[in-house]
Amino acid sequence: MSDQQTDAYSGTIFSGSADVLTRRPQEAYAKMRAAGPAIRMEGSGVVVTTREAMTEVFRNPDIYSSQLPTGHFGNTRPLIPIEIDPPDQKKFRMILDPLFSPKNLEHLAEPIERLVNELIDGFIDEPEIDFAQQFSVPFPSRVFLTMFGLPVEDLPQFLRMKDGIIRPFHVLGTSLNDPRVQELRETTAASIYDYFNGVLDQREAERKDDLLSKFLDAEVNGERLTRNEILDICFLMLIAGLDTVSASLDCFFRYLAEHPDARAALVADPALSPQVVEELLRWESPVMLVSRIATEETELAGCPIHVGDAVHPFIGSANTDESEFPDGDAIVWGRKANRHLAFGAGVHRCLGSNLARLELRIALRVWHARIPNYRIKPATELEYTVGVRSVDSFPMVLGESL
User: Fold this and answer.
1) What is d(CA 34, CA 314) in angstroms, rounded to the nearest whole number?
2) Rounded to whole angstroms, how far apart are CA atoms 355 and 153?
3) What domains can you pick out in the chain, each with its CATH number?
4) What is the pLDDT of residues 267-294, one digit of tens each?
5) pLDDT tens by residue, 144-200
6) pTM, rounded to two decimals
7) Most buried residue, 2, 264, 286, 310, by most Cβ within 10 Å?
8) HEC states along the chain?
């Protein structure tokens, strides 16, 4: 989704701007739902706002396809498995889901905790830090390097590749309409393919105890992943798995910095961290929306849907929908039946959701054991990006409560 599209939504559905929608979106979501469960926006497709309408979209991948036009991110093939629909998708999920099960991720808990402590060691004595640059951005990228058995020295290269695809307009200091944006994405995409091709050559010669080696050896019914399929999985994990965890941390820590009583409960009882993660995933919805393409003429909650329409479920709106969460405006650690859609739903539910939860739980627990008090630097207004609510800079004062 473009900045222009988001401006169109914010300007038409509620009185405000894209900045309001990304910084504190809950009020905007309420106004979206009041406007209708499915709303056609001229030039932007159909916005889906309610839990019920969104469930229909996610339950019908044959009608609402995830096979978006190839090449938007500079990729030369569909990204696996998110841009592959059933029945072809089934093979990939059968191979990948076990690799990302909670049991298969248990061994990462200790190295993730070490990493969190290592990052905190680097700034704990400083009175002021940039939380984004010193923690939320490098943390998930370092976890990625660990999982793939890659050297930590490659971190700057990984961050350049991620930003060249996800936020090329920030890299270039321009708008999404600048033709150089797509040129940068295509150049960056080529570098991603080249990088992982080189690493896979090494793993073909000698296996390691890492995810890439498991990709090479995994099979279903005697069928293994091809080289291109592995490359397409790695491409997706790079652009989808890093920014989303960073965004979650940015959103979570802003909320906790602004609500010392809620933070104090976590400090007093670190065992709350799983509940805090789930409730803030619901309330903040760091990934605001996903996109689908309609494959047939249909109707969604009274809104006509035409073949080729872009359909945008605003999962953040579903996560504060009063029909699902009667007290959705309240933040409740330990909320019962917290059936949020922060990781999507249906056959395309986020492959990395278990890993993201593990990273977030450990980060919250370890951070608040070591740094119980912090606040956003006074006179700072965090500037969130569109779609995935991350920030480039997060000035934070350590050792001080509000």
Assistant:
1) 14
2) 23
3) 3-398 (1.10.630.10)
4) 999 999 999 999 999 999 999 999 999 9
5) 999 999 999 999 999 999 999 988 887 888 877 788 999 999 999 999 999 999 999
6) 0.92
7) 286
8) CCHHHHHHHHHHHCCCCHHHHHHCCHHHHHHHHHHCCEEEECCCEEEECCHHHHHHHHHCCCCEECCCCCCCCCCCCCCCCCCCCCCHHHHHHHHHHHHCCHHHHHHHHHHHHHHHHHHHHCCCCCCEEEHHHHHHCHHHHHHHHHHCCCCHHHHHHHHHHHHHHHCHHHHHCCCCCCHHHHHHHHHHHHHHHHHHHHHHHHHHHCCCCCHHHHHHHCEECCEECCHHHHHHHHHHHHHHHHHHHHHHHHHHHHHHHHCHHHHHHHHHCHHHHHHHHHHHHHHHCCECCCCEEECCCEEECCEEECCCCEEEECHHHHCCCCCCCCCCCCCCCCCCCCCCCCCCCHHHCCCCHHHHHHHHHHHHHHHHHHCCCEEECCCCCCCECCCECCECCCEEEECCCC
Tell me the one-letter amino acid at 16. G
